[in-house]
Automatic annotation (TrEMBL):
Cleavable signal peptide: 1-26
SUPFAM superfamilies: Cytochrome c (SSF46626)
Entry keyword set: Electron transport, Heme, Iron, Metal-binding, Periplasm, Signal, Transport
Record-annotated membrane-spanning stretches: none
Binding residues annotated for heme c 1, in chain numbering: 61, 64-65, 104
Pfam families referenced in this protein's UniProt entry, alphabetically: Cytochrom_C (PF00034)
Name the UniProt record assigns to this protein: Cytochrome c4
Amino acid sequence: MQRTVRFSLWLAVPLALFVPAISALAQSGTAAKPAVPAKNPLALTFKKPDPAKGKALSQSCQGCHGPNLASTNKAIPGLAGQNPSYTRLQLAAFRAKLRPSQVMWQQAANLSDQDIADIAAYAGGLKPGSAWKVGDEKVRAKGEALFHKGDSGRNIIACAICHGDNGRGNDYLGVASITNLSPEYGLAILKEFKGAPGFGVPHPDAMRIMLRPMTDADLKAVAAYISSMQK
Ligand code: HEC
Ligand code: HEC
């Protein structure tokens, strides 16, 4: 039940992306009014981000996301070292209640576009937390191989193609840095991407499509590996 709710909310993300286009189209039919596109809740307007302001704003986040935003709580992702474009998109999606999480809806509710950009810039400049302990070395090694080489026999492409060999992703392309996620959070988010319906937009469809040929054991293995990547 819980999962159904989460998926239908995720589905709203790509829909929201299309709202401005649809409303502009609808309005262009009425000659009296010029077309004024509705604001896309995921498109933020901000000036040059100020990491010092971001630092002040993120004091309240540290209770959950950890000192210096490097989480040591396995249920909560670290924000330290995350690519700002990814952090901005997630905070905008929480604020618009498009990404599920009651807790984060509250946290993001009163942040302005500029606050979000300042926090993302501050977090992005911090050093990610240290690696998590991985219990089973064999599982981690299987994940390492899948991450860097994929498995062409099973149509699995290497995660490194998008996330990079070091797992730090790409800020310009909006690809998340994935080092330092706990094995538990990593596995949960991978299962969520895999089980989600089609979105019709590159984000987060890239993840959904790429995980399709992977088994639960594969996901557990890559989640274990990425949690150990940060040196
Ligand atoms: C009460 C605990 C709590 C507080 C306080 C909190 N968060 Fe979170 N945050 C979470 C949890 C739990 C998640 C995981 C949500 C999920 O996907 O279920 C999360 C997820 C996130 C994510 C997504 C990260 C990713 O890797 O996808 C961002 C960004 C984030 N929080 C930013 C913030 C910021 C900025 C603040 C302070 C303004 C904050 N959080 C305060 C609990 C908290
Ligand atoms: C085709 C490009 C692509 C490939 C290949 C890919 N990813 Fe991703 N990944 C992305 C993008 C883009 C995002 C950000 C998703 C979004 O915007 O919602 C992402 C997000 C993630 C996240 C969420 C990060 C967070 O903080 O919650 C994890 C975990 C992840 N990827 C792991 C993997 C693993 C493991 C593999 C290999 C099995 C993989 N990815 C392969 C593009 C890719």
